[in-house]
Structure formats: structure tokens, C-alpha cells
Amino acid sequence: MIAVIQRVSKASVSIEAQTVGHIQKGLLILLGIETADQQQDVEWLVRKIVGLRIFDDLDGVMNQSIRDIDGEILVISQFTLHASTKKGNRPSYIKAAKPEAAIPLYQYFLSKSEDELGKGIKQGKFGADMQVSLVNDGPVTIIIDSRNRT
According to the model, what pLDDT value does residue 149 have? Predict the structure, then answer.
């Protein structure tokens, strides 16, 4: 499972010109689920993300987590994070989980994130053609792969 985490001052997601999710200060998470992913990957990744100290403290040092600043989270599913570009110029998405396996893990990720953060999570729509807007604060962008835990 791969998560691209962006610290944002605001972000939103629209489907067919309708905003379906909007946050102010917080994290925009692009989430890619692969065929080998399991609930343990979700649990580890959520704890890691919610605990990440990437927000400035009063001294301007990145020392606070999303929980510390009472920030918001917007999660967008993105199977293209598992693109393989080793051969040719057309990416292969063979490692990306099929919807029947990915959707339950995506829903579990949302649920665990809400539990860990202690409040609701905004989201896009799995499999939809979405337009994502954001103001990356910093910029700060972190990539975490649950396969690289050790």
C-alpha cells in the first residue's frame, strides 16, 4: 500500500464539477492499494500517517502531528501509484488491486483513519474520474510504502 501524503493549507476533490470533499489545514492522502495488501498494511499505515510530525510547532520546527493541530484529512484512491514503467512507455497497473479487493481495504483505511484521528475523514469516490485541487503547504510531500516497514 502506497500513500502520498501532502501537507496542505486547503484541498478539495470534485466529480462532474461538484465538490464532494473539501478540507482546510491538514493532509491530502493519495492512496494506492496493491493486490498483496491486507488489513495489517492499513493499520500500520494509518498509525504512521496520523503520528507523522510534519506540522510546525511554535518555533517553526516540524514537530506536530495532524492530531496535534486538530487538522483534517482528505483521502483519494489512486491505483496509478502502482504503475510499473520498467518496459516501454505505457505504464502497467498489474500490481494494483482489483476493485473487489481494493474497495474493502479503502473503506477500512477510511474507518481506521477516523478512529485514529477521532473525527470524520473527507474522501473522493473510489474509481471515479476526480479533479483534485490543493495548496501544498511548504511544500511538504511524504511517500510511505507499507512494504518498507523494516
Answer: 81
